[in-house]
Amino acid sequence: MSTFDDPFDANRRLRAEGCSCGLHASEAEHRRSSQLQCVPVESEEKRYEQVVASAVLRKIFPQDKSRRAFLQSVGAATALAAVSQFFPVGAATEVFAQGAGALEKKSLKVGFIPITCATPIIMAEPMGFYKKHGLEVEVIKTAGWAVIRDKTINKEYDAAHMLSPMPLALTVGAGSNPIPYTMPAVENINGQAITLAMKHKDRRDPKSWKGFKLAVPFDYSMHNYLLRYYLAEHGIDPDADVQIRAVPPPEMVANLRADNIDGFLAPDPVNQRAVYDGVGFIHILSKQIWDRHPCCAFAASKEFVTTMPNTYAALLKSIIDATAFATKQENRKQIAEAIAPANYLNQPVTVVEQVLTGVFADGLGTVQRVPDRIDFDPFPWESFAVWILTQMKRWGQIKGDIDYAGIAKQVFLATDTTKLMTEVGLTPPKETMKTFVVMGKTFDPAKPEDYLNSFAIKRPA
Amino acid sequence: MPTAQTWRAAAISLAILVAFLSVWHLATRGTGVTANMDPEYAKLMGQTATQGKSAMPGPFDVATTIWGHLKSPFYDNGPNDKGLGIQLAYSIGRVGLGYLLAVLVAIPIGFLIGMSPLMSRALDPFIQVLKPISPLAWMPLALYTIKDSSASAIFVIFICSVWPMLLNTAFGVASVRKEWLNVARTLEVGTFRRAFTVILPAAAPTIVTGMRISIGIAWLVIVAAEMLVGGTGIGYFVWNQWNNLSITNVIVAILTIGVVGMILDQMLAALGRSVTYPE
Questions:
Q1: Diameter of chain A by CA atoms?
Q2: Number of structural domains, chain A?
Q3: Which terminus of chain A has fewer CB atoms gathered within 10 Å of its CB, N or C?
Q4: Is the Cβ–Cβ distance between A187 and A119 less than 8 Å?
Q5: Which Pfam family, an example, fits this chain (chain A) (predicted)?
Q6: A301 and A269, same structural domain?
Q7: Do residue A445 and residue A317 come from a single domain?
Q8: pLDDT digits over A296-306, tens only?
Q9: Does A343 touch chain B (CB under 8 A)?
């Protein structure tokens, strides 16, 4: 379920499989078929209320079954009234919607890497979402993840687009000194792909990939963990049987053309660009590894969050608004046109459009239609953080005993709801976890070590 | 050089250029329609895949792009999309500032080292260690300590252009002919007067040679530094176009960098000619 769905609808499932009405295979399909019938007009207040209410309801009913049973027996209106007794949803929403006071700083700088994962951060500028919340935001294209990290630490940027594992790595001090980081919103879900060189178009079975040279954009990235996971599930040891290198995205296409690498798991538009230029084909979408996996993140230092709470709330609201807009399929073409120019992604419009609409050439002569090839859902599930931490430990990036839940909580939800709720004198939810399935295997965030031990291929702890 | 020879040299240069452009043009010609594609599919693909257009741009593509940049060199479409003229102005500004700082530091210290054998010996080990460090190796450290990317780029320009000037100044000062210094001493010329009226004019050609080497290095470094920190400048332009895999624009940028580098070098060459010291 998306954060923008109504949690007070008894027919809605909070899990990813199937759709809310149960008639369709996926939520995307459901959305497509229902689009023609009616598009509910959703007011802003309603949207904020839903984001807050989602968090509350998830806390009260961690089990989906009990939530649905409860809603079915008493009805949504009664449920809302009952919940409001314990938790003034209205008041919390008001605080969230209006902010607590004047903005501490109006003109902000937000850094981004020119990939479609940054869509909400980027589009909020040309489409006026920042302006709507009284902010003058300059979105600044940045040369690489390390530079984004340094410029955010330097306070040249007030907030930035990051890979979702990066705030975790920063907080635990992997690869640098520990700096308290918060990740209030996931930028995008899905939206990556494994692209292979044209010469491998008949070698689609990963078991035959021994000796491949593959590229990922950064060591601490979902790309790295998803590729390693995918390979290991097919019996390929990602450290012994293949070479995985960190390569900046534009160099991936050039290296693929020059035959220096066999393929990559990369963010878009890189995959689509390789197809567009005729040098590669899309082997699988990352959605086929873990449907609705998080990828990039919107991150800010703890200092910015604590010293400028109102500005931060306005910024976060702009991102949530933009994300809600980007979730709708019918807006995607317009978004592609807004973010393709030189100022933002600097790519041909048709490449960006293929990524966002999910109607794309796969490089093998077929036009594929996958509407949720990339989707947007800002809710930072703490269980995502726990999964990422298990993979960091699995591949030896972090060692020893880890307080999975503690770190996840500190980084992934430390701010938005938690802070805004505390401000109005409420007790914020303690956990925001859900189970999910990665390549057919269910991940239970309560038992990270068991999950880790279930893998045949891993590095010794 | 006799006039006839100048003309002949020009003719050979032109012939080389024409030959180069012809080979380039022939090598990058497209192959025509490559494969039969479903029209819906073909619409989603680029010209390389559908028309067999070469991945490398030809000379005409580059000329068209250059013309486009020349028509509006100073447009400004927000923080990430500025005209080539503005980008160049940023780069030249950074190089100018870093280089000026280097001149202010290198020439006095160079004088000191050149005039005092003691200081020369004392500072030599530091100079020898710092001189061979690649300017870009300073970048992470600069970014981390200075905490400002633009200032870091200027610092990197400074640190890389300081050494050739320093060493050349020291060498020039140290090798001023002893007789002249002795004459000055006999005439009881004070230290400062001696430095400005005897040593400076005599060492000036060597100092300017050092400055000329330094400006070349500074211009080499700024492109790499801006590719790393991004934001503005010709180096950022190259990175941004590379991101888009627009090789045409990358070639345009390379040509521009070459032309500007040549102009900077010629300016210092002219300065060098004006300070030549007739013995």
A1: 64
A2: 3
A3: C
A4: yes
A5: NMT1_2
A6: no
A7: yes
A8: 888 877 777 77
A9: yes
Q: Report the b/e string of A217-248 with b at 16+ CB within 10 A.
A: bbbbbbbbbbbbbbbbbeebebeeebebeebb
Q: Is B242 on the interface with A (CB under 8 A)?
A: yes
| Residue pair A24/A33 in contact by the 8 Å Cβ criterion | yes
What are the C-alpha distances in Å from A46 to residues A56, A324, A413, B4, B238?
15, 12, 21, 85, 45
At residue A403, the pLDDT reads 82
Q: ∠B107-B112-B113 over CA atoms, to 5°?
A: 95
CATH architecture group of domain B93-227: Orthogonal Bundle (1.10)
Q: Residue A34's pLDDT is what?
A: 45
pLDDT digits (tens, 9 = 90+) for A422-454: 544 444 455 567 778 888 888 888 888 888 888
**Nearest residue on chain A to B81, alpha-carbon basis:** A343
Does residue A436 form part of some domain? yes
Q: Tell which A residues from 117 to 156 touch B, by Cβ distance under 8 Å.
A: 138-144, 147, 150-151, 154-156
Final residue before a domain boundary, out of A288, A322, A347: A288
- CA B95/CA A216 separation, integer angstroms: 34
Last residue of a domain, one of A61, A81, A99: A99
| pLDDT value, residue B67 | 87
The chain B residue lying nearest A250, using CA atoms, is B243
Q: What is the CATH number of the domain that holds A329?
A: 3.40.190.10
A57 shares its domain with A198: no
ipTM over 0.85? The verdict is: no
Question: What residue ranges do the domains of chain B occupy?
Answer: 93-227
Question: Within this chain, do residues A215 and A84 fall inside the same structural domain, yes or no?
Answer: no
Q: Which of B46, B49, B242 sits opposite A250 (nearest CB)?
A: B242
CA neighbor of A292 nearest in space, from A7, A14, A79, A10: A14
As a whole number of angstroms, the distance between CA A130 and CA A319 comes to 8
Contact A210, A236 (CB under 8 A): yes
For residue A71, the surrounding DSSP H or E stretch is helix A64-74
Tokens of A249: 């995205």
User: Quick one: pLDDT at residue B105?
Assistant: 92
CB A361 to CB B48 under 8 A? no
Per the structure, the complete domain to which residue A414 belongs is given by 107-190+294-453
Could you give phi then psi for residue B251, rounded to 5 degrees?
A: -65, -40
Q: What confidence tens digit (pLDDT) does each residue in A119-174 have?
A: 888 888 888 888 888 888 888 888 888 788 888 877 888 888 888 777 777 766 66
Residue A460 lies in a domain: no
Mutate which: A154, A177, A271, vs B, most B CBs within 10 A = A154
Same domain, A325 and A412: yes
A26/A78 same-domain check: yes
- Assigned domain for A263 exists: yes
Nearest to B44 among A142, A155, A354 (CB): A354
Which pTM value belongs to this model? 0.77
Nearest CA among B258, B170, B163 for reference residue B214: B163
Distance CA A116, CA A266 (A): 11
Domain shared by A282 and A331, yes or no: no
Residue A195 has pLDDT above 90, yes or no: yes
Q: Do A143 and B49 touch (CB under 8 A)?
A: no
Q: Are residues A142 and A79 in the same domain?
A: no
